[in-house]
Specification:
alpha+beta; 2 domains
Length: 417
Amino acid sequence: MTLKHSITTAIAGLKTNRSRSLLTILGIVIGITAIILIVSLGKGAQDLILGQIQGMGSRTIVAVPGRQPSGPSDFASVFLDSLKERDLQSVSQKSNVPYAEDIMPVVIGTARLSFGNETYQATILGGGSAEQNNIIGRIFDIFPSSGDFFMAADVKSLSRVAVIGDKVREKLFGTEEALGQKIKVNTQVFRIVGVLPKKGQVSFFNFDEMVLVPYTSAQHYIFGRKYFDRIIVSADTPEHIQTTVDDLKRTIRANHNITDPEKDDFFIETQADLAERLRVVTSALTAFLVAVAGVSLFVGGVGIMNIMLVSVTERTREIGLRKAVGATERDILRQFLFEAITLTGIGGVVGIVLGSVLSFLASLALTYGLGLNWTFSFPYGGAILGLVVSVSIGLVFGIYPARQAARKNPIEALRYE
């Protein structure tokens, strides 16, 4: 019997029991659909997160207080107040960090805003520079749609001025003009000098829900602290990023009298480091979810084996008749094996199509429903993997029923009722 005839016979056998064939491949369809959906959404989530991280700029370097955590036990030994004014002054000296272009300390917290009868709990970001104007705009690539950022003179003089995000403006002022108005930040009165356009997430900051004030004002009037939550440094060129990282570590260690790097009370992050860590995390999470979805493929494979065994029993007389007219054990084995592979192959193709359609619809819902910058990504690797796995399942779980069919004695098979 030729290969073409074996395939034709297998397809004919499946057509005689269409309902059972469709129900048989249901487990494979569900498993492959889940894999395609998870891989596609996982890639979309990874692109979204990395896009937000990279929104700060590839040359951005961040000094973070505390020991870099490598496990749950490390959180008990952090020093969240380890970055102070002395560190900022040292880092700002060209002789210490010659390739630093922009340097900005950051103080972060929350505060209650009020204007008239309206109140809103917002994130306060204290930033700016006593030496450079518009440093926030350059680092985060965002500029007010009306008004302007506070100046270096405002940072020096601890001015109570603020730039508000679009959502803050909407919550406090509605359709009224916000520029020039005075709002209360906790108990302190700040004058609005700028309003940001709708921007959304940049790195870990949602500027729509933030109020930007001079870091000196945030420390003195709002939070009452003398340390920084971050010191952000922008290298002048991508080639100087690693040199700038080394200079920052050396300078801060000298300030803190640290000679052993293992005893650092701060750590340095670059955008590339952060993006790589997040890529590893999202990839591992996606792989875990794919493995969970793979359980349904295993269950589907067991179902196919059971159905094929039932089919072998029901078609005993057919097997005996075919053997009586000259079909060999190899022919019978190949026929039933092709039936199993065809079932799982069709299930794989249907699962890929269904998973892709659902992924595309989910990306549209996330983009237009939640306003996320979500991009649909067809998982070519996942599709190839799904098709290979589905066919392999048919091969593995179809061998035993096919061998059972091939070993039947033709005389006994013809007598089977």
